[in-house]
Write a structure and sequence with these properties.
There is one protein chain. The chain has 7 helices and 2 strands. It has 156 residues and is mainly alpha-helical. Helix 3 packs across helix 7 and helix 6 packs across helix 7. The chain is 40% helix and 4% strand. A two-stranded antiparallel ribbon has the order 1-2. It has a single domain, classed as Cytochrome c-like domain (Cytochrome Bc1 Complex, Chain D, domain 2, Orthogonal Bundle), CATH 1.10.760.
């Protein structure tokens, strides 16, 4: 906001702060930066898949998760069929591009509950919206996490 005075235009200090915050909000986040807000992390870490560790889920769970990823969940639109974050709508998420699930660094730092929390609540400040309960059940959300885990083949 500008105000005209005898000397010229003056920018209100509050507007400088608003612009600085807007620029910071638009900056890209590091791939391994938390997607769950700190106030919700304890809740996220308490979530556990009903079938155990999603990295070792039974094949039928992973197959069901793949069908959800490619279909009902619409994950391929942003994350792409390959999971690299290169889906047809990925460019619409700039500057917070969709997570590249093939990035094993991302997969290795994320607990199952964190991935599930993002599916359930969305990722604040990004295009990732809540899928549970609007599009998926909690059981389907866990199957989706199990499938997402398959994009990284080198776990530490």
């Amino acid at each position: 906001m500008y105000c005209r005075n005898r000397v010229g235009y003056v920018i209100f200090p509050a507007m400088i702060a608003v612009v600085a915050l807007a620029i910071a909000a638009c900056a890209s986040r590091h791939p391994t930066a938390d997607r769950v807000p700190s106030h919700a992390m304890e809740d996220a870490l308490s979530y556990k898949a009903p079938f155990g560790d999603t990295r070792t889920a039974p094949p039928e769970i992973v197959t069901a998760g793949k069908a959800l990823y490619e279909g009902k969940g619409n994950c391929i639109l942003c994350h792409g069929i390959s999971g690299k974050g290169d889906g047809p709508a990925a460019h619409m998420q700039d500057p917070h591009l969709p997570t590249d699930f093939t990035n094993c660094s991302v997969q290795n730092v994320r607990k199952d509950g964190e991935l599930f929390w993002v599916i359930k609540h969305g990722s604040p400040g990004t295009g990732m919206k809540s899928l549970i309960p609007g599009m998926l059940s909690e059981e389907e959300g866990w199957k989706l996490v199990a499938y997402v885990r398959t994009f990284c083949t080198a776990h530490s």
